[in-house]
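new request in #modeling-help
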Amino acid sequence: MKKTKFYFSKKLFFTCLFIFSLISINAQTNELNKEDAIVIKEIYDESLTSRDTYKLLDHLCNNIGHRLSGSAGASKAVEWTEMIMNSYGFDKTYKQDLFVPNWKRGDKEEARIIGQNDELRVLALGMSVSTPKKGISAKVIEVKGVEDLEILGKEKIKGKIVFFNRPTDQRLISTGSAYGGAVDQRTAGPAEAAKYGAVAVVIRSIGTAFDDVPHTGVTRYVEGIKKIPAAALGVISADLLTQALKNNPNVKLFIKMNCETLQDAPSHNVVGELIGNEFPNEIITIGGHLDSWDVGQGAHDDGAGCMQSIQVLRLFQKLGIKPKRTIRAVMFMNEENGTRGGLKYAELAKKNNENHLIALESDAGAFTPRGFGVTAEASTIKKFRTWLPYFDRNTISYFKKGGGGVDINPLNRLLGTPTIGFIPDSQRMFDIHHSDNDSFDSVHPRELELGTASIASLIYLIDKYGL
Ligand SMILES: [Zn+2]
């Protein structure tokens, strides 16, 4: 009896404690809501109703098109984004000069299995050298990864085309991780195969769709190792080749491409600024990369991130939000095949002794927002998490540890600037990434705008409360 009584009082104590903590959490949330919930609602409302990000992206994709570094498209995009930010009347709009690699794809590539009529769907990998004018015809050796090359050795590889055919792992929920687990075949495969005397490399496209649209992307040659031509096959074409090899291991592949790398070309990062009215020397960077591959329209990768960055500043302006700190929208040049823009931005920041509070990059597609990845002190991440109640959980539901972007990571390395990566839903990104299918019609206006609004809301809170 006595024991039960004690049990009840203990239970009562914990119940009271629980209710008390709920009240205090609620009070805290309400207090935050009072200050900012209205502004954040306005940010989402304006983005979703104006669809300004979508309108800009429409122009970038349909009037300018793809924008490989050194191309006419890239130059047009530089001029146009500068003009747009000027027309909005941002406090400052300017360019940063740099030089970029200047690779040209040349004529449409050709590939076929000798003795079969079907043309295989093929795209040269970015930065690949050309085949001889008449093409290359050689036997094919199929591997699942670079580690197979050592096992096979020179005598089995020399004079052949190495075919990297390890698919992306469809079991992974994060398609970014699936991509990351397969992409070494593209980035390192050609240089590795060359060490064993391969004459060319073809890879199974690194993507998640089961179609025949090949995906390009950069390959990295190694100084001192022969540069051999390298191309990606559509997934269905890769399956045709693997079946042909099963039927006849001596089957030959013909491949022809005439890409070339010209002298580095002058280009620019484009920057727009709203100057802070309390701490103008504290800079918050929001960016995407303006260059894209030379197929499709670079809509998700990364026209979307650039247009979102401009629109974050535009939303502040339209809604009369006067930032305390300086907020910069940066269109980085050359993420895809050199990162020269990201490096230049960090280099100039260091040289000019700039004080960068934090940098955010949107380069994962224009899909429904899910969360943010943050590389910062644990206390900053903890603080960001207290802001989750401001976001509809169907858009932003987490802040995870670790995140950034290819263009802002140099800022972190050089100045120790904390970084944030915007994370949208990843299920469709690698169906279209670096391919003809990365086009404006694959972008949903509401998803794109929710991204803009989510980034703008986070930047609003960071600007107001710091890290
Ligand atoms: Zn990108």
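bot summary: The chain is about 40% helix and 20% strand.
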